[in-house]
Amino acid sequence: MYDFTYQKPASLPDAVKALGTEDAKALAGGMTFIPVLKQRLNKPSVVVDLAKLGLTGITVTGDTVTIGAMTTHETVANSAEVKRAIPGLADLAANIGDKEVRHRGTIGGSLANNDPSACYPSALLALGGTVKTDRRTISADDYFQGMFTTALEPDEVITEVSFPIPQKAAYAKFRNPASRYAMVGVFVAKGPKGVRVAITGAGQNGVFRHAGLEAALAANWSADACKGVSTPADGLNSDIHASAEYRAHLIGVMAGRAVTAAG
Amino acid sequence: MDAAFEGIGASVRRKEDLRFISGRGNYTDDINRPHQMHAFIKRSDRPHARIVRIDTAAAKAAPGVVAVFTGADLAAIGGLPCGWQIHSKDGTPMVEPKHPVLAEGKVRHVGDPIAVVIAETRQQAKDAAELLDIELADLPSIAGVTDAVAPSAPLVHDEAAGNQCYDWHIGDKDAVDAAFAQAAHVVKLDLTNNRLVPNAMEPRAALGDFDPSTGDYTLFTTSQNPHVIRLLMGAFVLGLPEHKLRVVAPDVGGGFGSKIYHYAEEAIVTWAAGQVKRPVKWTAERNESFVSDAHGRDHVSTAEMALDPQGKFLALRVHTLCNMGAYLSTFAPAVPTYLYATLLAGTYTTPAIYVEVKAVFTNTVPVDAYRGAGRPEATFLLERLVDTIAHDTGLDRVEIRRRNFIPRDAFPYQTPVALQYDSGDYVATLETALKAADWAGFPARRAAAAAKGRLRGIGISTYLEACGIAPSAVVGSLGARAGLYEVANIRVHPTGSVSVFTGTHSHGQGHETTLAQLVCDQLGVALKDVDVVHGDTARIPFGMGTYGSRSLAVGGSAMVKAMDKIIAKGKKIAAHLLEASADDIEFKDGKFTVAGTDKVKTLGEVALTAYVPHNYPIDEIEPGLDETAFYDPKNFTYPGGCHVCEVEIDPETGVTRVVNFTAVDDVGRVVNPMIVEGQVQGGVAQGIGQALLENAVYDKDGQLLSGSFMDYTMPRADDLPNFTVATENTMCTHNPLGSKGCGEVGAIGSPPAVINAVVDALRDYGVRHLDMPASPQKIWSIINAGRLPVAAE
Amino acid sequence: MPQVTLTVNGKSASVEVEARTLLVELLRESLRLTGTHVGCDTSQCGACVVHVDGKSVKSCTMLAVQADGCSVTTIEGLAAADGTLHPMQEMFREHHALQCGFCTPGMVMSAIDLVKSNPQGLTEEEIRHGLEGNLCRCTGYHNIVKAIAAAAPLMNATPAE
Prior knowledge:
The complex is a heterotrimer.
Chain A: E1 5-7, H1 12-19, E2 24-27, H2 33-38, E3 46-49, E4 58-60, E5 64-68, H3 73-78, H4 80-85, H5 87-94, H6 99-104, H7 107-113, H8 120-127, E6 130-133, E7 137-139, H9 140-143, E8 158-164, E9 168-175, E10 182-191, E11 194-200, E12 208-209, H10 211-219, H11 223-227, H12 244-262
Parallel strand pairs in A: 1-3, 2-3
Antiparallel strand pairs in A: 4-5, 5-8, 6-7, 6-8, 9-10, 10-11, 11-12
Chain B: H1 17-21, E1 37-43, E2 49-55, H2 57-60, E3 65-70, E4 106-107, E5 113-119, H3 122-129, E6 133-138, H4 145-148, E7 164-171, H5 173-181, E8 185-193, E9 205-211, E10 216-221, H6 226-238, E11 245-248, H7 264-276, E12 280-283, H8 286-292, E13 299-307, E14 313-325, E15 352-361, H9 375-393, H10 397-404, E16 413-414, E17 420-421, H11 426-436, H12 442-451, E18 455-464, H13 472-477, E19 486-492, E20 498-502, H14 511-523, E21 530-533, H15 551-578, E22 585-588, E23 591-594, E24 600-602, H16 603-611, E25 626-631, E26 640-650, E27 655-666, H17 673-693, E28 723-727, H18 745-761, H19 776-792
Parallel strand pairs in B: 1-12, 10-11, 14-15, 20-21, 27-28
Antiparallel strand pairs in B: 1-5, 2-4, 2-6, 3-5, 7-15, 8-13, 9-10, 9-12, 13-14, 16-17, 18-26, 19-20, 19-25, 22-23, 23-24, 26-27
Helix pairs in contact in B: 9-18, 14-15, 15-16, 17-18
Chain C: E1 3-8, E2 11-16, H1 23-30, E3 49-52, E4 55-58, E5 71-73, H2 87-94, H3 104-116, H4 124-130, H5 142-157
Parallel strand pairs in C: 1-5
Antiparallel strand pairs in C: 1-2, 3-4, 3-5
């Protein structure tokens, strides 16, 4: 990796200021960012470590789960409150990467990076959550803008992520056999905003909502309802592990499994 | 012996483990020398290109950089040698293009080394490498063997017309043609043996050192055979005599064949250390391993079997195209010929066999032996063909095998493809495996799986392999440029403890335990009093190293011979001490006894006398108790066995899970059953990996698409089942231990068992054959294609 | 260059490193603790797993500067001062759960975390799933799974490390 200046600010304003430097990059858990640096695919001037900003913790109110941006996947997975409020979200966190990744990786880092095969983006989009930053609140529908692209400004820091508590929700993932990232991940949710289905791992532009599945599940919340919905292969990724057609097929299968898991 | 039994047959715990579980292993990258520098190798990112220009000025001026070398700087040294020469059908020798240490004029595969930057730190070397100004002009390229032999294919080497390295054959073509002409049935199968990346967990590393005061060079390297590296690098590349070059292969983190070969980086760091007069270390990053370690397999074949009306095999005809990659790796030409074609009799009495093998160059990483080396390819072809015969003729899969097995009383058995098998009992391994796997109970399990919506299949493979490599005269006549004996030095110390110096090398096999057990057994010494030393040309007389499941059968036999000499000399000393004739001395359990008396001297007493020869027959024998033996095997060894695999397929996703795997192998005499089971388990895991998961995928131009663990599917714990492993042994008849070898059987027998099970699971979808890996996508495609017409009806 | 102060295997260490230095590089190159290995560059093989503040992490995917102020345990720090092996080390030897030994340090560190975070016990399937972040090319995992299953009750019976 290229060398850089390392900063670990103790306050949010200091972090935002540091990120204002040209080619500065934020470091959360580093589970994607550090491998990218190791491959010399990114050459930051300054790396701003967000670990000392106090952005951790989980709070659950009557209708919302709020998770600090630097909360690790492991913490979310093991949180009794999250398990009670949105078990599908805890389950998603419990199956991101491997144990070592879950010990370091954070929800804010995952959403800020918006890797097209990351798990969390599908939860945020399907649950209709919001991303709170140092300066504003962004709804899920406005947040994702294509793979590795979000509404965040270069110096903007996610502080917390909120999820409205759904009636039912679950995530089902088909792992890439090699990398174990989501080759197809489907998050289904039935809640205050109706039925929402978000797909990760499959789309050329990153996470997306699936209108066909949403309509079918709104009419009939059952795994069987997913079987009648076909997904066009256009716009889906194709690689040595899965053609677009295979991914399109897996979307239906994983949606059905997610619905079954959601109950 | 008073302690627990530690000799041949005891599952003693491994002596080497304490250092490994404590983090005190000593792998090459763990070694650091004073004033050491670091090398980074700039590699080609193009599959085929002309090197127009290399400007090293900016890199040389970068912080910490001590030197930058390119092919032009190394032009005076030799290319990397090939250790085996094959002759084509027409008698011409194979085309053997120069394999430069650093590319000269052209790059021929992604990963081909172009330049080396040597700097104070690894990062500085890598930083500076980005400042190398290299201009490459792309040339047309090819990656696949069928593309390489097309008439208009671009040439990898100008001297290799049609990209052909050799066009070789074995067997009696006329007899085969005649048998086909009269056959009741002919069954034909086209199949591919997928290309694999060995991926030992320890990336390759090399550390070169040079002492200007003596002119001595030392190379620490991740090698399975340090003496071979010393010979090849010293004599053919750098022109260094053996006494000025020491090669050390310390703890090595797995090899599976990929660390047999002499690699460019070894020559680079050794040569560079001499140039800059400081130690130079290079350690591969995994992405470099993918494009610089020799790959394995990569065959495209057509197989045809002629049968009589009862399903007896009359003749086998095979045509194989095999990929050599861009250059010939050390043993590459031997793999698809003498380690493959000669194995195509398998366990069967097929009377006539004819095999043609065409080896071709492509713009890919060199291909060489990977665990099993040729024998997995032969076994996959044969065992898939046998199941396809069952499919096409309606005969039972097991019954066909029984009808064609070489009977147990037919040994020694001469095959029509050169080998003479010494022993085996294929019915016994089959019966044991069928019972252990509950073959008879499978229909109920299939029905139970079907009730859950799963497709369950069972598959069998009965295989034979040749290992214990190898009789020197035989391999010499077949083109080997080396002997393949092994060397052991047994040093009984003055107080009776023993050091074994072996020319084999352990990189996971547990030699420090297994070979020590031979000493416990033969000399009656406690395991704690025996140490096995390996991997250092300065300490071990000579050796050919470890591959081809040879360490026990050949290296262990050398130890037996050396210990025979120890005992013979010890008897003379004991006879002197006990005032008896040497002919009357018996040796057992570490004691020399005068036959029929209670007069006894222990090995320790005899050893002490040998080193303190005050009362000693000094006119008849020399002091000391230290013997060396070179053992050259009389034949290959022939392990065989039966593997049974049971899979369940999720028809919605195409995911296959191995739910049961049973391996019953005949490995000859077993010294440490625990270690043998571990070897088989590991081999089976690699075989299941080949069958279901692993695939080195190049695009048609030669870019490696599966160049990291992100894309190359390594078997993980949750991809694999528990294994049922057993042995059913017949003894090797021609070595003193009776051992055959166990390192490769798992990887040889298992792939066709897995695919046969997958094909069985998919039998309702009209599947006749499926190439490896049987990935979820591939299986889903089959199921999906099968399902559409059904849905349309 | 940044100064990193951390506790490694109970001993305090203070090292000046480039900001880009990985934790594994600090351990292997600055502290010469070479028991922690590097087997890949994509954070997948797990040969580099150590414990940071009691949790298993991949030391090839953490900057040394991120470990400032942390307590790190490596394979070298597992055995007791008198040399008594950790039960996981002991069971790896007993069950022949290692061959070449290269993945072993990371595998052992990962396995200890797995058992510690599942005091209720682990099924074979849970052990296999829990090893998702560790690759072994030699053993086929069969004996690793056995060793972890055998170590779990021993670890739960003895005080935490």
